[in-house]
Amino acid sequence: MDTLTLVVTALGSVLLLLFLVMKARMHAFLALMLVSIGAGVFSGMPLEKIADTMQKGMGGTLGFLAIVVALGAMFGKVLHETGALDQIAVKLLNRFGEHRAHYALGIAGLVCALPLFFDVAVVLLIGVVFAVARRTGGNVVRLAIPLFAGVAGAAAFLLPGPTPMLLASQMGADFGWMIAIGLAAAIPGMLLAGPLYGNFISKHVTLKLPEDVSEPSLGQNQMPSFGFSLALVLFPLLLVGLKTIAARFVEADTTLYHWLQFIGHPFTAILAACLVAIYGLAIRRGMSSDKVMAVCSAALQPAGIILLVTGAGGVFKQVLVDSGVGPALGNALIGAGLPIALACFVLAAAVRVIQGSATVACLTTVGLVLPVVETLGFSGAQLAALSVCIAGGSIVLSHVNDSGFWLFGKFTGATELQTLKTWSVMETILGTTGAAVGMAAFTMV
User: Fold this and answer.
1) What is the pTM of this model?
2) SS3 annotation, the chain
3) 159-173, 235-249, 360-374: least confident range
């Protein structure tokens, strides 16, 4: 089938996905499965191969992500219930002072959201914004935008977040380089999109203070120290970093090399962090075993829908790859003269604007560029840089088809127009800044 037909099939599939989710109000999982079948049929894929490709896409995505999501959800929930996340936020506020509280909230969002889903992190941390707003009498916009920027920066760029972890896995990127380049992208992106833009836009948009505030289960006297809390959040990152240490400084095929590779795998790192949080923090500080079980179960409940929708996004991605749609569109972009790093950003941004989900935008873009990337022999560090470019494109220009758009409005009480002026612009600044760092890193590593 010719390139034009394949490209039209890809674009038509994304537009159909948009219609089914936004207009027909079909559940995202059903819509993705239906569109995947349609893309396979209209691209000329043999009918007997479509089901196998769908199974391959679902298994290939969830085989890695299901473990990361389940363990990460429990880890983050335990940290919240024991007050560890609260301790980090309060310490930062005390250190920065009320006049620079917007910087403290940006950093708190960036650090505390590391082990959490975006939605979960917002739910758990938004109470800090309201508590600070009550103390300072400040505009909620000035405080909420930095927090959301920090959470969004962590969710988009930083391991062990599910989306960057999935991106690095699908692209075959080096996890150590993903941490380094992700940090280089997230920190300046958060500062520009959060405290700086939040301070500016708060002069033009004012939001009243809502009343709901979430509190940890353990009392104040039972909460861990700031140092221990921060060490727990960073613990899985340090373990994942061992793989990079092994690859750089330890001779390959030695016993030490294999142990460092094993300990530094995301599965092992997040499992170890989860166990330390449960037995070294929650139970030691008086949380009963029954309560821990309830906390872990509650953490897993929302993960099921997230996994199914993400897996369906993997199905769509695999159909694009196996049908030839992905290679055709990727080659068309690169043939048009776009550098590969810029092409990754543009593709992810286009899919993001059309269908809304950052995770689906990432998966779809991987499906479009991976056939081209695999032939060019890039290093693990370069693949990490390209992953950051994709992540940046996947969060720009958020609007009404993005759940984050409505989440921001729901928690802050912002109207749709106010959300466009605040949340949507913030996401665009964050994603563009992060992608620019990824493009620069691609040329240097």
Assistant:
1) 0.68
2) CCHHHHHHHHHHHHHHHHHHHHHCCCCHHHHHHHHHHHHHHHCCCCHHHHHHHHHHHHHHHHHHHHHHHHHHHHHHHHHHHCCHHHHHHHHHHHHHCHHHHHHHHHHHHHHHCCCCCHHHHHHHHHHHHHHHHHHHCCCHHHHHHHHHHHHHHHHHHCCCCHHHHHHHHHHCCCHHHHHHHHHHHHHHHHHHHHHHHHHHHCCCCCCCCCCCCCCCCCCHHHCCCHHHHHHHHHHHHHHHHHHHHHHHHCCCCCHHHHHHHHHCCHHHHHHHHHHHHHHHHHCCCCCCHHHHHHHHHHHHCCHHHHHHHHHHHHHHHHHHHHHCHHHHHHHHHHHCCCCHHHHHHHHHHHHHHHHCCHHHHHHHHHHHHHHHHHCCCCCHHHHHHHHHHHHHHCCCCCCCCCHHHHHHHHHHCCCHHHHHHHHHHHHHHHHHHHHHHHHHHHHHC
3) 235-249
